[in-house]
Amino acid sequence: MFYRLGGKDAAFLLVVFGLSAVGFVLPQLRARAWHGVSWFGWWMAALMVAGPLVGYLHMRTGARR
Amino acid sequence: MSVEAILVGVYLASCTGIGVYFARRGADSESEYWVAGRSIGVAANAMAIMASLASGGSIIGVMGLAYKSGIPFTLALFAGAILGFPLAAVLVAAPLRRFESITISDFLTFRYPGAVARWCVPLFILFSFTVYIVAQMKAAGITAQVLLGMEYKTAVTASTLVFVAYVSLGGMLAVTWTDVVQGTLMLLVVLGTAAALTYDQGAPLAVLDRATEAAPKLGEMTQTPIASLLGIFTLWAAAIPVIPHIVMRVFTAKDAEGARVSLNLAMILYSILILAAVLIIVPVGILLHPGLQDADQVFLKVMQGQFPPFVRGLGIAAVLAAVMSTTDALLLACSAAVTHDLLGPFLARKGERVRRLTTAAVPWAIGLFAMACAYHPPKLITTFYSSAIGLLSASLFVPLLAGLWWKKANRIGGSASILVGAVVYLALELGGFAIPKFSPVLFALAASAGAMALGSALGKPPAPEISLRIERLHAN
Known about the structure:
Chain A is mainly α. Chain A has a domain at 18-60. Chain A has helices at residues 7-25, 27-31, 39-60; strands at residues 33-34, 37-38. In chain A, helix 1 (7-25) runs antiparallel to helix 3. The longest helix of chain A has 22 residues, at 39-60. Chain A is elongated, with a radius of gyration of 15 Å. The model of chain A has no long low-confidence stretch (mean pLDDT 87). The model of chain B has no long low-confidence stretch (mean pLDDT 87). At the A-B interface, helix 1, strand 2 and helix 3 of A face helix 6, helix 10, helix 11 and helix 13 of B.
């Protein structure tokens, strides 16, 4: 039914968007703050750092479908 | 003449020079003009993609948004944009690059033959990108107004004339190489400003403590509904794989692998730029310039108050670079929507001379129309153009992904998906419903996916030649 997506590519997308989803569903992240900024903000900042780096390593270490 | 004005003059002259330099090659063929002859390497393409996305919205607008709506909301928007890159790199870049077309409409018209993909897609692009261009022009205008003391309309007019000139002359080659220069300048100025402010004001976390103490709204998010946060995140994550000024970069790459890697590299550069702006420069802006009427001016006020004329000149050039690097790519994508997608078959019958004249004239028509609109600017530029981009996310994301990956996607499903996504988005966005801001895209994407599934179940399977070609796009 679908064209086949490689296992590494699928895993990469699942991790990135799974972690994003955690940021939206955990109310604790919105209720607490660190240095005045809610944990949700820091979670998004962490995703902005980790997503690109993991993505680049993924592309450079033989991501193939 | 002031140092700032000289630096800005040198910058504008350089951009025009690049356009003139590439004018002859751009005129050689459609492929040279629209997709730079598919010859751009990974590093240059990554910097150009970053510069195209990092608009006036990403320098002026991102800081204005963080200043007014807080850091968490702003980072939700930009995390969406940044995480849209893996979607684009993994799901779109390689197969679409192998399709060897010029615009996203080419692919959608092939995959879903019919009037909807043929006419609606370029018209949506034209509408959304004209709004996007107007927002960028505001950023150029207020920058020159605040830092050079120039009249707002004069600044908008001058920057418009320069970028329209080099787009119409040099096409994608000129746009790409000016974007490389502009992206480098942006990174230098934003990171340099962040470093200088850290040296002057103290460690970023200590400054953040002081800023959130003075203005607790900066770090809070209790006032923002979760549907708005999810909406703005999804809007941009779904936009990156489909917005034409990014997709056209996929077609300029030398090969499919180069397209994937350059998208990821661009994501890293963009992330660095946004985090430095939001977490380091905005808190200083809150402390030094509280209560600004126009939040979009926060970066300019920091530059004005903290730095000598030479650095301010670089700052103005960087903001103009941010504006122009996006606006030129938007303008090229808009022009492609008109010249290649809408008028393409007509121009093919009229001969080479008419094609060249139209190709050069269309950017002027769009640029001058947007300039006239920008004389009466919107309030907060990032939210203004995000709403327009939502139309493209809502109408193109599902059809593009389904067209590339779902074997059963057919003409009825694709056409219904494009139309339903757009209609639901526009109805919810403009209909005055009591729903959280930016949430319409969530409903529109769901409706678009539903229309795709239903239409494809009811319609005939795609023609064998379409299935065969899509099959080949997935061959390693």
